[in-house]
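Hi Y.,

Following your request, here is the sequence exactly as I used it, all 254 residues.
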Amino acid sequence: MRKILIFSICFALASSVWGYEFHAGEVTRVGNIPQDSQQTDDNGDILAEVSVETDIPVLRFEGWGLYGIERTEKGYKLLLSDGFSGILLRAPGFKAYYWDFGLQDGGLRSAGVYHGKIERTGPAPYMGPLSDLEVKGEFEYRMWDLAVRFSKDKRPMLKINTDLPFAFLKKYLLQEGTYEAQETNMAYYELRISEGVVLQDIVRKNLLHGDIAWETRLESPNVYRLDLSWTDKKYGQAVARDLQKAIKENAPRK
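Below is the corresponding structure, written out as tokens. Let me know if you'd prefer a different format.
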């Protein structure tokens, strides 16, 4: 019993990150598109249909093989290319998330009808002061992200993936005047940076924890990504006190 109690408190402490997350399971095939309703992609191949059930009010889907989105009573209907195996999910207050359909036979099949469900887990995104939080970051160069290479604007791009509101980042973490914001409604937040600017001149180094290459110069035409996670200090401190109390109360008596 003592081990179970301590494990439960440790789990609660580890779970003190707050904010919405996508929870999307595998998609399943439920039938075929009638021949008179079939549509084709640019190559003439018959598209597949994915019925998505969700209660998330504003949900964006992104992917190279996405040919159509239609709102339905229970969510959305997507038209996708043959062989498509996953799609990027974005919504206000969520981290961007790649939904792997979990199909074992090479992805969606032409003329197939599939069903999937997207739910949310966790409480609403944080809206309080920075003093209540510990914010951690992971930074990387995105070699395979071609967002800048196919754009007329060749300035480096910094994509920030977090459930924190952009207003929070602007107020506490970003250096004013060092970037041009292009997407601020939902993550990934997209910022354009002047050629050669160092990361620590854009993001306030003293307010962000993590093993980050702060001296990195953002070069054209590259894309960089900063993933942010956070914990509520007060919640974590309370759970830690409960853990210490539980260990003391359950310690073997001499």
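The chain is about 15% helix and 30% strand.

Thanks again,
Q.
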